[in-house]
Amino acid sequence: MISKNFSIGKKINNVLQNFPSLRFRDRDVCIHDASGVIKCGRALSYKALGVEQSNPIDNLGHFRMRFGSWIERGIQYELMSKLPMLGIVTLSTQGSAGEHGTFYGTSWHGFRDYDMGFAQVKQDGSTSYKPVIIELKTKVGIGANFMIKKTAWSKFYKDEILPDTEWGYAQQLGLYLRDAYIKTKDNSKFSQPITDGILLYFLYVDKLAVFLEFYAEYKPETDSTHYYRLHCEQIPEICKDIDLTVNLKDIADNWAKQDVYLKAGKLAPPDYCRKYDVTDERIEDEPEYKLKMAVKNEVVLGDTHCQYCEYKDRCSQDLKLDLKYKASEVKILRSYLTRETKKKGREYAKKKNQK
Length: 355
Ligand code: SF4
Prior knowledge:
By secondary structure, the chain is an alpha+beta fold.
């Protein structure tokens, strides 16, 4: 028998919460994480200054954060490993990528999910492999639905589906493609430099389990990544040519601004808005349930990044934000709710008339 004080779940949770980081980039606050392109400068400086997290990630948050990568490992183990019989081979996984001071004076580090080779049969019958960088992302639950369609009452509601720039995924693959290009452009082992990439989303929610494929190409002449095609095998009606350009220098420019504060050991200005002013037009895009919660003073409306920030209370305190709405503000928030409900009704009626 095992002692009744023993819990293997407790041990696992301990690993989840307390395992020390051994990452190379953690030694230097100015080495940015490729997957954290959109990270707030103020949050980075709180971390660099050793400020205690006011909102550390709880157990649920830890699981939520890792859920995607666990699914991705399953996809890799169960599905990607069988692709060679279809002419697609994995050249490497978790390839180390980054630059030290050479990215317009800034530094970054990251790991490419997949370096794949797509078999191409030449005229003489021999086979060569076209290297393609694949970045796999997972969205589960409401995020998966939002990827296909934003809320019906959002003013951003549109048919066009683009790769995620708000969370930096499109930028992340852009950085990896730049890195792969630099490493292969004068490399005699490659007949041509790597420029191709796929941002591959796995979306999973009730009644939906699909791969969204965003095809991208690195353009060295402009140091940008062009997303040119969306494909989804299960939803053919959303397959289309797209046109989204990610300028990589913009990322470096943002990091350079943050580095000034990080190097000086000073608090950077916030990159996001913890609390919108009640007259802020972004409030119109908040889903109805959140507006209802705000009216009851149960939630503060602001940028989503702040909701997940480990320093959000400390930040609000430093910015002297009142996280409770006054009666006059609640009145204004309530008016959005009526407006949104009316708008939703109008859209519903319009759709019904079209049928
Ligand atoms: S709460 Fe928002 S603005 Fe403040 S540090 Fe966090 S992400 Fe930045």
